């Protein structure tokens, strides 16, 4: 009896980079609620087409998009937007919960000695707040790169943050083609590809499918990740 053919390994992934907001942590909903509140003050409504443009971006860039897209130029500056958002987000962030499958994936990859890091557009101070409940889990990361890092000159969709994060593994044998990125946002998927890295996208169900076409793989949740497809040790493997 022939053994069932294993799915062809398309990549030999050696390192993993995780986006954070919307991918590891269920935090995009906080940004949505807060942005809806800010727009309501001007009698305007927030929708997913605007959300899709803002998610994954550095704060100031997201603010500029928010103001331009909603016609608030002259009524609200990006700095004022961030300041008003900050007050409400500050209370929400420490309650951030993990996305489904995030803990199991991180613990498995760590147990199999696959180096991992987080590459988030969030500011370092927001990273600290959001990871309040997740210190032990996030300590399994080799390092964390945040959007305010001076080496991250251009935010997603530029490749900067993923190239900086790859560099900080300090592994001379690292090849970007073997660094797998996990993302939830179109800007993050574009940034990964700009960095020469394959990317698995786990989009919010509200995100238009037309914006999920570029990723190498699209999953409904991290629970659906197929280790063997990427040449990574699976849950059952002894590797
Ligand atoms: O890069 P991430 O962690 O998704 O940061 C997103 C944040 O800027 C809010 O959209
Ligand atoms: Mg994200």
Automatic annotation (TrEMBL):
Record's catalysed reaction(s): sn-glycerol 1-phosphate + H2O = glycerol + phosphate; sn-glycerol 3-phosphate + H2O = glycerol + phosphate
Question: What biological process terms from GO does the record include?
Answer: glycerol biosynthetic process
Lipid metabolism: is it a keyword of this entry? no
MF terms per GO, please?
A: metal ion binding; sn-glycerol 3-phosphatase activity
Pfam families the record matches: Hydrolase
Name its co-factor(s): Mg(2+)
Q: Which InterPro entries match?
A: Gpp1/Gpp2-like, HAD-like_sf, HAD-SF_hydro_IA, HAD_sf, PGP-like_dom2
Q: Which UniProt keywords apply?
A: Hydrolase, Magnesium, Metal-binding
Q: What Gene3D superfamilies does UniProt report for this protein, alphabetically?
A: HAD superfamily/HAD-like (3.40.50.1000), Putative phosphatase, domain 2 (1.10.150.240)
Q: Does the keyword Magnesium apply?
A: yes
Q: Which domain of life is it from?
A: Eukaryota
The catalytic activity of this protein is classed by the Enzyme Commission as: 3.1.3.21
The family classification in the record reads: Belongs to the HAD-like hydrolase superfamily. DOG/GPP family.
What name does the UniProt record give this protein? Answer: glycerol-1-phosphatase
Q: Which organism is it from?
A: Ceratodon purpureus
